[in-house]
Design goal:
This protein is mainly alpha-helical and about 260 residues long. About 65% of the residues lie in helices and about 10% in strands. It has one domain.
């Protein structure tokens, strides 16, 4: 793997450009351009896309780091500064939850429907996660799976968190499915859907992917034989299903 793209010295101070940070920048840019397109096509203020991007970047990174600290509090207690400012240690669900909360506030400020804009944002979020997971793979940041010896596994000897034995490249698996989700959501948006439908499908799809990938990932069991990520994934699936059920009930009431 290639955790460092290049390194230059500026007056004796090394400037390191990491592969994860570089690809994460690409992820945010691609997500922003796709969201901006969706917002313009739906005749909304294009400035909204920029402020959603700003909230997603800032709150997403803060939330991802806070959730990592929560998961690894003993590590944080022993080395708080190193844990807080390390290039590793980002929990994607923490970033998603905090970013969505901040984006909801911004959407309300613009006086748009939060659920409607979340529908528009879902394909962009999926694209962002797809590229972000490629960054995890290229940098070898430790988001890999369990050790195994088959055609689907590979080592990460030069990763930020090295794995010298073959392991499942779970980041690549997630990236593949996120691209499929993004394409599927874009296709679904071509037909008129109830407000919240696209976002619900995104939540369910995201939850299902992470729930099953966790069975081959290296994460500690939290409760009932499930990891923290699996519990959050079940929460996403339940939330998405609740949105769909509510829509169905509302539709039946309107028809009766």
């Amino acid at each position: 793997m290639f955790p460092v793209v290049f390194q230059i010295n500026l007056g004796g101070t090394p400037l390191v450009i990491g592969s994860y940070g570089l690809i994460l920048g690409i992820a945010f840019y691609c997500a922003y351009r796709l969201l901006e397109r969706e917002i313009i096509l739906n005749k909304k203020n294009p400035d909204l896309a920029f402020y959603i991007l700003l909230a997603a970047v800032l709150l997403g990174l803060i939330g991802a780091k806070l959730f990592y600290i929560f998961e690894n509090f003993q590590e944080f207690r022993s080395a708080p500064l190193q844990t807080t400012f390390s290039r590793t240690g980002l929990v994607v669900y923490g970033g998603l939850l905090l970013a969505l909360s901040g984006c909801a506030i911004i959407i309300r400020i613009y006086k748009y429907s939060v659920v409607e804009v979340f529908d528009l944002s879902s394909p962009a979020i999926a694209v962002g996660f797809a590229f972000g997971r490629i960054g995890c793979h290229v940098s070898g940041d430790g988001c890999h799976g369990i050790e195994a010896y088959n055609l689907l596994t590979l080592p990460y000897p030069n990763g930020i968190v090295p794995a010298f034995s073959p392991v499942y490249p779970t980041s690549l698996f997630e990236s593949f499915f996120y691209f499929i989700i993004a394409c599927s959501l874009i296709i679904l948006r071509k037909r008129k859907r109830p407000s919240g439908f696209i976002f619900a499908i995104f939540l369910i799809s995201m939850g299902l992917i992470r729930f099953f990938v966790e069975f081959i990932r290296v994460n500690p069991i939290l409760v009932f034989g499930l990891t923290q990520a699996q519990i959050i994934a079940l929460g996403l699936i339940t939330t998405g299903a609740a949105i769909l059920i509510r829509q169905r009930v509302h539709l039946k009431k309107n028809r009766s």
